[in-house]
Amino acid sequence: IEKGELKLTSEEFSPTEVVDNLIKSVKEQAKNKGLAFEHSIDSSTPSILIGDSERVVQILNNVLGNAINSN
What we know:
Blueprint: E1 11-13, H1 15-32, E2 49-51, H2 53-69
Antiparallel strand pairs: 1-2
Helix pairs in contact: 1-2
């Protein structure tokens, strides 16, 4: 980011769709490790956000992947 090499986009996206799509693969990873996995999206979550949905997916995938792999 400091070098200006990371390009972020600013576009509308549905956080619910992003999370639902990501959860499909994460649930399978958790299941394969014998872990239960549940998620919920708060009803106050906006239906549309503006930002870089690919970066959001990358961050969530890293955090969830680390949590699953550490167990």
